[in-house]
Write a structure and sequence with these properties.
mainly alpha, 9 helices, about 0% strand
Amino acid sequence: MAVLILGLIIFLGAHSARIVAEPWRLRTIGRIGELPWKGLYSLVSLAGFVLIVIGYGEARQLGLPLYDPPVFTRHIASLLMLPAMVLLVAAYVPRNHLKARFGHPMLLAVKLWALAHLLSNGRAAEVLLFGAFLAWAVADFIAARRRDRAAATVYPAGEGLRTVIVVVAGVLLWAVFAAVLHQSLIGVAPFAR
């Protein structure tokens, strides 16, 4: 469990610079430059991610049940993952209605992903992993919206065709991930349980 905790601290810590240390972050970027900052940020994030993957794999083997979710929560989780995947795609397609409306669809996607997995998993490793990501995403979304208000940020208006592309791509991503990728990458078939 220690490797998982270390990975979460490193990965979410790096991703929390804008939440807890925005002045320091801006000073550092000003001192070393934007590209070196992004390179360092990426390396630290990658190191944290690798530790999360290794640590989660080790911690899952321990089992350590905290609660036993009812079977219906797995169905709720599968349904929650559909808008999560659509929001994930919305983060990368410019000028769609979801991005225009929410500003930070990636953070909303992370919140839905984490909540869905907390509902359907009750072992200590899952609760730690998804609980940490949910807490971080909530804090980051609040901080991002606060920055948007302070800067009077206006997101470009959404376009219908781009929004349709986002929804279709998100649904396809959800279907492919649920039917194939989740099993091959995570070792769990969401619809087979």
